[in-house]
Amino acid sequence: MLTTARALCDRMIDADDCHEAATEFETTINKIINSFNAKQICQTLSHCSAVSTG
């Protein structure tokens, strides 16, 4: 998705602003992804047994 956004930015007149927005979006997405705790999510969704989460 980000690759597509950057490709579209390249075709825009004000490409610099578009690239800045895409970079900010990427940073936000990376922060969200990095904040995930797999063990906590697994326990919340009840997909892990006590043995596998211990």
TrEMBL record:
* Source species, domain of life: Eukaryota
Protein name, as recorded: Saposin B-type domain-containing protein
Native organism is Adineta steineri
